[in-house]
Amino acid sequence: MSDEVLRVGVIGARGRMGTEVTQAVDAADDLDLVAAVGGREWLFSLSDAGSQVVVDFTHPDVVMEHIRFAVDQNIHAVVGTSGIDDERAETIRGWLASKPGLGVIVVPNFAIGAVLAARFAREAARFFESAEIIELHHAGKVDAPSGTAIATARGIAGARAAAGLAAVPDATTMEAAGARGAQVDGIHVHSVRLPGMVAHQEVVLGSSGETLTIRHDSLHRSSFMPGVLLAIRSVADHPGLTFGLEQLLGLD
């Protein structure tokens, strides 16, 4: 966008991430926090305040309603809420079809290190027989696996398919329910939920005689704020639906 101060509204402003976002936006010289609403509060406060960009950190049950509101009000949206699957993505693209200048950015993880770790995992996946993901989050997280883990698994699976690799080896024929975790595009994903955690992910890759572990840890929610601010500042320059930060970082 231009050098003018951007007017930003936050949905979910009372939550853990929303609180961090409001503080980060308020502290940025080129951004103006004009509205901060809870996840189920009056959304027209955002448009009444003249928001140019809204940031959503709420709940998968309501996030589509919020995105639709933003699109209808011609407000760019930055979305950190989980639950945007392929079907929902197509719905959002449909909403944006008649709004060629409007942008929606959906980001599984705003931490720069997490974006890089996922990128490294895709690169490494071509060279190993197998890969599994362990994601660890705080006990208050409502979804499992995390959006980050799902996106990482899909990226790894795509890289393996492009390299012509066979399915990951696994001789398991007897297991307690869930012992091998969920499967996302053939990649096993294991979710841990513990108090004291914030957001952590390991990708473990293996071939005969060696393993490689790629791990990222967010130790405080402030680690997500550089990515959030980048998305806010960039969304108007990326019309349509954008997934992740890679394009914004020049990695895609």
From TrEMBL:
Cellular component GO terms held in the UniProt record: cytosol
InterPro entries: DapB_C, DapB_N, DapB_N_CS, DHDPR_bac, NAD(P)-bd_dom_sf
CDD domains attached to this UniProt entry: DHDPR_N (cd02274)
Ligand binding ((S)-2,3,4,5-tetrahydrodipicolinate): 138, 147-148
Domain Dihydrodipicolinate reductase C-terminal: from-to ranges: 113-249
Catalytic activity annotation: (S)-2,3,4,5-tetrahydrodipicolinate + NAD(+) + H2O = (2S,4S)-4-hydroxy-2,3,4,5-tetrahydrodipicolinate + NADH + H(+); (S)-2,3,4,5-tetrahydrodipicolinate + NADP(+) + H2O = (2S,4S)-4-hydroxy-2,3,4,5-tetrahydrodipicolinate + NADPH + H(+)
The Dihydrodipicolinate reductase N-terminal domain, residue ranges: 7-110
HAMAP family, sorted: DapB
Its job: Catalyzes the conversion of 4-hydroxy-tetrahydrodipicolinate (HTPA) to tetrahydrodipicolinate.
NCBIfam families: dapB
Protein name (Swiss-Prot/TrEMBL): 4-hydroxy-tetrahydrodipicolinate reductase
